Amino acid sequence: MGRDMWSEWLLHRRFGGDAQRMQSVLDFLRPVRDKVLDNARLAEGDTVLDVGCGDGLIAFGALERIASGTVIFSDISQDLLNHAQSPVQEMGLLDRCRFLLAPAEDLSALEDASVDVVTKNRELRTRNKSSGEPEPHPHQHALPARDGGAKFRHPEQSGDPGICQDASSRCASQPRQQR
User: Fold this and answer.
1) H helices then E strands: how many in the chain?
2) Which of these, 134, 132, 131, lies nearest to 123 by C-alpha position?
3) Best CATH choice for the domain 5-173 from the list 2.60.220.30, 3.20.20.60, 3.40.50.150, 3.10.28.10
4) Is the pLDDT assigned to residue 177 strictly greater than 60?
5) Sequence-distant (≥ 6) Cβ neighbours of residue 118 within 8 angstroms
6) Alpha helices of 41-147 — where are they, by DSSP H?
7) Contact (Cβ atoms closer than 8 angstroms) between residue 137 and residue 124
């Protein structure tokens, strides 16, 4: 059985085999990732959940920033989780990572109050269960935050285009790419 469509595109087709284009996109995305992580205010010992981690760009950035703590790579694609797990294993960091196969709208596999920081890609979409049509991620989605009641909020609701948070938690969101 081959890779799922999303991982095939993300890992192999999005750059069309053009190494220069890949480098250009990564050069653009790294500062975006860095802003997301700056806004998350990571601290030593934090447990970071990267929802819809894809190829792991944000999660790997979190691993680089905190020498202790845990990073949870979460995605609906087992292929992408396997892809991310391979370099984690090579770096000898498996003891600091978890890999969670779960859709963004159902993180029930995580215990309440088990996460300090949540990151997500701004472009996460869910499918309407009745029509099957894509729709934006729900404006508020309960997350199991250690310091209480974290919610996903689109950045437009918080007034800051680079972060979504409420008074009791840290939740960073990748801003929409400029076109």
Assistant:
1) 5, 8
2) 134
3) 3.40.50.150
4) no
5) 48, 49, 51, 143, 145, 150, 152, 169, 170, 171, 172
6) 57-65, 78-90
7) yes
Residues 6+ apart with CB under 8 A from 92: none
The tens digit of pLDDT for each residue in 84-139 reads 999 999 999 999 999 999 988 888 898 888 898 888 865 554 444 455 554 544 43
Q: Could you tell me the residue ranges of all domains in the chain?
A: 5-173
For the chain, give the percent of residues with pLDDT over 70.
66
Q: What is the dihedral of CA 99, 101, 105, 108, to 10 degrees?
A: -70
Single-letter amino acid code for the residue at 102: A
Tokens of 3: 């890779």
pTM above 0.90, yes or no: no
- Cα–Cα–Cα angle for 62, 43, 105, rounded to 5 degrees: 55
d(CA 13, CA 3): 12
Read off the pLDDT of residues 57-86 as tens digits, 9 standing for 90 and up. Answer: 999 999 999 999 999 999 999 999 999 999
For residue 149, the SS3 value is: coil
Torsions phi, psi for 65 (to 5 deg): -85, -25
- The amino acid sitting at 118 is V
